[in-house]
Amino acid sequence: xxSLLTHTWRSVSVTxxxxxxxxxxxxxxxxxxxxxxxxxxxxxxxxxxxxxFVETEDWSRAIVPxxxxxxxxxxxxxxxxxxxxxVLADEGDRRMPGLFGSFAVGAVHCDGRAAFDExxxxxxxxxxxxxxxxxxxxxxxxxxxxxxxxxxxSPDPNGQIERLQGLMREAEDAIAAMLVLSGASLVIADGxxxxxxxxxxxxxxxxxxxxxxxxxPVHEALLASLGPGERTPIFALIDQDGAVRGYSWxxxxxxxxxxxxxxxxxxxxxxxxxxxxxxxxxxxxxxxxILPGYAxxxxxxxxxxxxxxxxxxxxxLRHRMGDHAMIRRTLVAWLAAKE
Length: 339
Fold this sequence. Notes:
By secondary structure, the chain is α+β, with helices and mostly antiparallel strands.
C-alpha cells in the first residue's frame, strides 16, 4: 500500500511539473545592500517612448564595433552625497523637516594610468515647505564648514534628499562642462544625463541600474545575447511632444556567467540629442569598445556595472567630504549652543 501511494504521488508530481514548469532562479551580482542592478517593472507596458529604428531596423543580432587602435584619454565624472544631520525647523506655528547635507563631485583621468582630476565639495542646509534658512558656518577641526541655505518646496523629508541629489547633479554637470571646454576628448558621466540641459555638451552618460523599460520585448530580447564589447542598435529617446531628447544604446561589459540573470553586466549609455544620430553612432562604437576595459572589480559591491575608475573616484570623494561622525558631532554641538 505504501509503495502504491509513493508511486501515485510521484506520478502526480511529474504531471504537475509538466503542467506548471519549475521556477528558474537567477542571481543578481550586486551586494543586496545596494539594491539590484535590475529593477525594471516587467509586468507593465514600456514606460518611456523610444524610436528603435534610428540606426537600423534589424534587431536580430548585436552590433560589434570595428577594431580600433589604442584608446585615447578618457575622463570619468561622478559625485557622492551624504546627509550629515536631519533637523526640524520651527518658524512661528510652522514646522518643517530639513537636513544638513554634503556632496562632492570630481573626475578621474585615464590614459594608460588613472589620476584624480578636478573636484569640488559643497554643503547645504535644506529646509522643506519653502522655509528659507540662513547660511551656517561652523568650525570643525582646522576647517570651516559652510552650509549654503536652500529652500525646498516639498514638505516631505524625501524632498530634501532629492534636492541634495539635484545639487550634486548640477555640480557634476559643471565639472563635465569644464572638462569639455578644456579640450577633453571623451567625458563619461556616471548615471543618466540631464537631457533637457546643456544640450550641446558631448558627454556620455553610463547608467548602471536597469530601472526603466525603453524598448518593446521584441527589441529588448537582444540584450540577453550581447557579448562583452557588443551593443544594441542606437534608439532615440522621445519626449511627450515627440521631440528627440537623446540617443541611447545597451552594451555588455563582461561575459555572462552562471548563475547571473541575462541582464547582469549590461549598462545603458546615452548622449544628448544635439550630438546627432551619425555622431552618436560613432560615439557608441568607441565607448562600447573601451568600456569592458574599465569594468568594475569583483570587490566592488555593484560590480561589474560600477566602473573601476568610478569606484575609486567615489572612495576618494567621500574622503574629501570629511569625517561623517566628526561633522555630525560638530553640528549637534553647534545646535545645542544656540539654545
